[in-house]
Amino acid sequence: METFTGTILVVDDDPDIQEVLRDRLEFVGYQVLVGSSGKEGLELLQKHSPQIVLLDIEMPDINGLEVLREIRKRGDDVPVVMITAYSTIERAVQAMKEGAYDFIPKPFEPDHISLIVQKAMERQRLKRDVEILSEEVGERYHLIVGKSAKMNQAVESAKKAAGSKSTVLLLGESGTGKEIFARAIHNWSERKSEAFIAINCVGLSKELLESELFGHEKGAFTGAHQLKKGKIELAHGGTVFLDEVGDISPEVQTKLLRFLQEREFERVGGTKPIRVDVRIIAATNRDLERAVKEGRFREDLYYRLNVIPIILPPLRERKEDIHPLARFFLQRFSKEAKKNFTEIAKEAEEKLLAYDWPGNVRELANEMDRAVVLGQGSRVTLQDLSARIVSAGRGTRSERLSYREAMDTSRRMLIIRALAEAEGNRAAAARALGLQRTYLSKLIKSLRIT
User: Fold this and answer.
1) At the N or C end, where does the chain have fewer CB atoms within 10 A?
2) What does the pLDDT read at residue 139?
3) What is the pTM of this model?
4) Radius of gyration in angstroms for the set of CA atoms belonging to the chain, rounded to a whole number
């Protein structure tokens, strides 16, 4: 027999009904709370936050309809299943209009109860999954919003582009968030309910990339044992994101140009034109104009891609976004690691600001992830940052680390590396460093190494 998990609150003044519902629901795996009155039910609901409420309509102190109204008044959207006699079905229907999930008429069958509760649980799980997904999407979009004028200009251009069917070309260094921008454009567009498919053009051979994009017929080449639809075909009605489009071969450039011109293509080894409705968003960190002049990129394809160009500024050109982004990543990684980091020390923030971030937002995210993993307490300090960050901006005497600070930073990095290579074994790390284990333990404690 299939069993389920979750907490259910039963609110009914009839002890026999309480017993029947408790026995049945506990038998299939649920945890059951029981309230004998509307007032007790509201108290249990507030204290335990069950996933479902089974609520009798007829109760002496507060009837079920009033309890339901109070639940909704509090802003709680927990599914409420009304328990009703045949004489009060009209009131159960009224309860449905006021936000009840369903109702169970008395006398009820145990299997019917299990089915209704199971469906209500599935509804709650689906709702939770949607909320989690929405939160994740919201977090991703948070990364493209900043205080800088350049980034805000790029966001505004992306929003305007989303309302059109035109091809978008995202230009910017590696790590500036081109795929996040592409997904944002897709989700701001009328295509948001359709597929978004990303393809990284780097590292794929001409044959493999052509097959990934356009698919192939059975027997088109050795190993093609069955028909395969390409990503462009699979994304019909949606969006295809071509990352690092500047790296594709001349042969694939030709086929991509034809698709952008005609909106149709042929699978590898095929002869039948296939027409699809797909929005193309391309991205590159290369200088395509220079590639065109040098003959490495087709000029006509460049103009087909460059309909709406959006330039994503590097992080060093939007310094005002560094601190908000760093705090955002700190909060995210601290939550994931179940730690309590809440702030970044002023001297650490100054170093983050002084560093040029050649890896852009991706590098900043990695740095905050590392600081959370290796640090402790509630503040990120200089000792939690990488040596390359700490050494940033040492141009003036006042910005230089003291001898002790520099030595502590170097010792910390050496010990962390030794511990990592020894998989956390302090004795092995001590041997590798030529130290006594007790002395290494003292250093670990004094340098605040977790």
Assistant:
1) N
2) 55
3) 0.59
4) 30
